[in-house]
Amino acid sequence: MSPLDRAVFGFLLVDAVILALVELLFLPSYLGTVQFPITAAVAAVTTPLLVSEAARLSPRRRIAGAPLVLWFLTVLVFGVLGPGGDMVLVGNDWRTLLLIGAGALPSAMMLGIVLGKRARA
User: Fold this and answer.
1) Are 29 and 39 in contact (CB under 8 A)?
2) What is the pLDDT of residue 121?
3) 39: three-class secondary structure by DSSP
4) How far apart are CA 66 and CA 35, in angstroms?
């Protein structure tokens, strides 16, 4: 990887952490009286983009999957050990499952697509 690629990769990792924190903290948002977890949709769009861009930078699996792993760990750590000891991720809440599923599943699928294309070539 060139120095520019390393800088872009570092930015992708920082972006994954920032996105995870924003998505996590805005997860319990409401639109009027209705629960409206729009950040799950944001996670479904942004995390696969991070994975595909990281895969474009390097053919290594660790590099391509690093934004997904970092996003997942950030959501898990800050969701369970939230600010002030609060738990942001509650085990019996549908929004928790929606955020984790919408962020991790499309990213894992994108990782498989990118690595599968590279394996065929």
Assistant:
1) yes
2) 67
3) helix
4) 31
